[in-house]
User: Fold these one by one.
Assistant:
Number 1:
Amino acid sequence: MLRSGGVVAFPTETVYGLGANALDAAAVERVFAAKGRPATNPVIVHVADIEQLGEVVAEWPEEARRLSARFWPGPLSLVLARHPRIPAIVTAGGPTVAVRMPAHPVAERMIRAAGCPVAAPSANRSARISPTSARHVLRMLDGRIDLVLDAGSTPGGIESTVLDLTAEPPVVLRPGLIGRDELSAVLNRPVAIGEPDSSVNIASGLPVPPDQESPAAARSPGLQARHYAPQAPVECCRQGSRQRVQELAAAGKRVGWLHWQGERQLDDPHVEHIAMPRDAGEYAVRLYAALHRLEEAGVEQIIVDFPPNEETWLAIRDRLRRASR
Ligand code: TXA
Ligand code: MG
């Protein structure tokens, strides 16, 4: 399917990706159309071995070599100068390309069998929750993709760390499972963080805006047909989540509550409880599954106990902030 221009959802160690032959612009366009992804957002190219980098990146600097030796296969995407063979749609027209070698046996064997680098964003509709199971993929993309390879739940839970090596100093564009300190240690120099870890808007969570239709979807009305499930607004609380949940439930709202493990449950049928681990790694594994579950349960509002301001929670805070926008 990949060789003939199809789009295939597949598991990685982070989340499920929606893949297409990275050297085939028309195939990658189908990925954008299936997701409703704006053409301005570039996608990550996945390789199964170092040899495949030859048609993906224009240069392979010493620092990329060191980072790949330490973290690949694994959840680290490196932004480097783009090879001319990579079509513009993959990089959103830009001069750089993000590349990673996933650490999942199914992903590795799929890419090898296809014999081409695989461009793959997360396998969700644009601006919706990333999938950590094949079922999550089908919730959003059934009928819009050719195939999903089901290998159960993904072990990592949140997306890869994206590190821009073309910036000086290198900058983390998206925090992920590999922390800045680990990258710094291998590079033996400081690494910057792209977006400041600003504090979250606790007052109110705004619903995520509706998906933007891609140009391909505009041309092909069939691609626009979808069941639009309104997403419940997410509100993060540094403290007082219990009171906030009680308040909303008392007003008759169906509330999902992501609280810390050990919190006493409320005796109120309006409230869906999900107990979250106090370890950042375990929290990451469960986060998207928890949000999918609450979305499926049809809650009208989601209240989250916001994690502490520590570096180990950086990626989780980032994802929760995005969910609450
Ligand atoms: O773990 C992951 O990275 C998953 C799995 C499937 O590999 N993929 C994933 O893809 O999360 P996606 O498209 O949901 O997120 C890719 C991120 C986006 O924030 C995008 O803007 C950024 O990587 N990105 C991709 N190419 C880039 C480039 N050339 N320069 C800067 N950022 C780039
Ligand atoms: Mg994504």
Number 2:
Amino acid sequence: MENIYLIGFMGTGKSTVAKEMSKLLPLRVVEMDETIEMLASESISDIFSNKGEAAFRDMETMFLNAISKEKNQIISCGGGIVLRDENIDTMKKSGVVCLLEASPEVICDRVNNSNNRPLLENKKTVEDIKAILDSRQERYQKAADLTFDVSANTPMEIASEIIKALALKGYLH
Ligand code: S3P
């Protein structure tokens, strides 16, 4: 089966939904940020502060290129994976891309207790989040094959909704 990529802004629940999907489908989950941290032996925040964002983006692209060669994976991507055209091309060629969407208000609620997201350091108001989201919106749309609103439902409900939509569109064979 081709890969299923979950993309979307920070706090839209990609990791949790990926885990729920793996309970329903015989696919393994790849958590991009977690794996990059393991490979680099450094947290994402430390990579950003010690090496800079560009170095993190290079690692992200390198890792995506490597995993895209495998099949049968649900890949939970970092929120900025869409920032490079090259990454969008890689995902589209090796799987189906599912966009998880939520309003700035919902995202704000969800990210407010976390301190492991360098881009949101001291930028966790609804206005801050809306500004980053607006600047990325076009890229998320460009990357997405299917889009899901994650505001109202539980991760398991969203996982089932995604699987139903993928089956309907003929992606699950
Ligand atoms: C980022 C999102 C983060 C992580 C890094 C940058 C982004 O992942 O990759 O902090 O640019 O949106 P999550 O979306 O899993 O929080």
